[in-house]
Design goal:
517 residues, alpha/beta, Rossmann fold, nine-stranded mixed sheet, six-stranded parallel sheet, 19 helices, 18% strand, binds adenosine-5'-diphosphate-glucose
Length: 517
Amino acid sequence: MVSEPTTSTAGDTRAAEPAGQGQSPTRALRFVAVSNRLPVVVEQSAEGWTTRPAGGGLVTALAPVLRNRGGLWVGWPGVTEDVDLHALLDRASREAGYRLHPVRLTAEEARLFYLGISNEALWPLFHDLFTRARFSPEAWRAYLEVNRKFARVVARRGRSADYIWVHDYHLMTMARELRALGVEQRMGFFLHIPFPAPDIFLKLPWRAQILHALLDYDLIGFQTARDRRNFLDCARLVLPDARARGKGAVVSLNHGGRTVRVGTFPISIDFDEFAHQSSAPAVVEATRRLREELGGRTILLGVDRLDYTKGIPERLEGYRLALTRYAELRGEVTYVQVAVPSRRDVPEYQVLRAEVDRLIGEINGEFAQIDWVPIHYFFRSLPREELLGYYRAADIALVTPLKDGMNLVAKEYCAAHVENDGVLVLSEFAGAAAQLHRWAVMVNPHDVEGTAEAIHTAYHMAPADRQRRMRRLRDSIRRNNIYRWVDDFLEAAVAKRLNDFPYQEDYVPPLDPGEGF
Ligand code: ADQ
């Protein structure tokens, strides 16, 4: 990158010479991951401000790639208070094995960029719910400004051999800002949410700016072929000289003399880890207890962030209809809905919470018997062990988003079913459907009768059929796991694979005394 001379420390050298390649620190490929949030949670506790790892498959999969070459993760720490981030993130970086670098946002920037554009305009629009989208020009200016801020941090921290990998819809204009700063490194972008079809995308007041800015990346990745097709269609409409070429998982888009590669990379989970953890004695015991507490009934499970894209009210209506139509389900099935609180400061989410509370109250009021409650509802995040207990205990998972980039819950549920039992009821509009539709019970989440029917079908499915389908689901997810996803992206981005970045057990990331936040 342009602006910063390389500071070489002993740690840098070690990090820069993996696998006996003997390259100098300045020339060894290094990864800079960028996402809206850093992969740590910064929070205030009785002992003052602390951090804990945010976890998740993406972080686990990227960690070796970042650690091995002295990599960097740039993101917003999620706090706008005046916290001593230097000391906090130094410690967290040592624990993570790679450098965490914060982008500080003011409360106003966070409000406009994060809530105003990311959550209130792009999120609903990209999930086809455009009537929920609000387009504030003031918030858009803040979005551009925050993307510029991210770009400045990356440009200051960068080196000539970096590969910059940017994640998600919060940072779609960042490459443009980096290029404006003179940064010439290769940059990739992965969109975790769907990309809408032209008739929806074209409603966005800043459609041309976003498309132009995206084309400043060298590689753009989508979850599914559908998302990529939508993107290419929009690009052709907004940029008449844009031409797509090629076939397969990665194609080329030529525009204004530049070639950008556009690929499909369906994200996944650390399958083996989920399967392994699900077999732990504590999880087996939690599963047994849950089944016992729920009276040995057939358990239906929903696990979602409480988000209007996840289709929770529609699913509840489907369940209500199933109980109405099929008397044999009453007293015999129990639906457990676990919802993680999300975006509580957005009014739509408050309305959704009230609606879910109301529907659950109505259904329980209508059908409950003295020894049976049709729905158990948990409105909180669960520790991994407990979550796995629910996954394993559930005979049927209801994963019915109205639209979803991928949906990892569907894959986690299958990975946890180590006994190859359980039925996945899956929305046609989850990205996961492209991979799993042959063995899941598919539903249109808007179709209440279809959802009731799917619940009925899953309930009556013969054990041999259940097991055959679950075995296929698990095979597919095992093969296409998160490591394969990173491999495929790296291959397309820099012609390397994960094995080129072997994990170093005792690696301690270098401290860079020159770094001031
Ligand atoms: P999300 O919209 O957050 O992700 P999803 O893919 O389902 O959706 O991931 C949710 C994660 O939260 C899962 O790992 C799940 O285990 C966890 N979770 C859910 N409920 C929980 C609970 N009650 N307690 C604890 N953990 C819980 C976005 C996109 C998705 C895309 C992912 C990854 O919207 O479409 O699959 O990014 O790219």
